[in-house]
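ok trying this again, last paste got cut off
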Amino acid sequence: MQTRTVALLALGSVLVLAALVRPDSGDSPAQAEPDEPRRAVVRDWPLLDATGRAPRGSTCGNRSRRVLLSFDDWDYAEPKRMVATARTAKRLDVGMLYFPLGEPNTAYRRAHGKSLADKVRAQGQYVGNHTYDHRSLSTLGAAAIRREIRGGVRSSLLRPPYGAYDAQVAAIASDLRYRICLWTLDTRDWRDLTPKQVRTRIVRNVRPGDVILLHMNHALHRRYDVRALVSAVRSTGLKLCRPYREHGEPATSPVRVPRKLRC
């Protein structure tokens, strides 16, 4: 009887361990690559409170009390709008952070000879990597994660799609010389809120030093007015990050975003 009990306990332990192991995507062997540094386990999703804040979110190099507006994804219907918003921001003396996808950015460069990311940088705005085609990195194997990151826009900042990443993603990003960059305030414009609703969320919840998450690819977002977003933040008495500068003058921002933004 005792022998049977021990055997059943051993079998149960094996089944529990098997259930805890995440199946590999098939893109690479399940074991971690030997040259990758170990990283502490992090959350798959940013921890959001009732207002959409991410207390553990990254400030993306914004160490000031100024607010940083950031835009994810791509305006597929009007890709040049990204450059138009960058020009408006420069005229308003505002520096913003863009995370376009690598796939459409590469296609635009092949068609027009210059990428939209380069045009945005020319306006003193910052550009980060949002992967090649917006696959959730924490569901992929190591080889696929590397392909997604390498296929994205060149930068030193990586914003994983959906904010989803784990220890493996963090280790590979570090190996490729990227820093994970999330946000501290989610406007939830991805719920197709009206521009007015988005501005209201900003005014009610923004705090000094916030990195605000917005998206370029939602239909209603094409009606967003950068001037109105800037005015919404300034109406709270807070200041926004300024465009990149060299020797005190606006300049083209570097491909590798500085660890400390010159806000």
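PB: full thing came through this time. The chain has one domain: 40-250.
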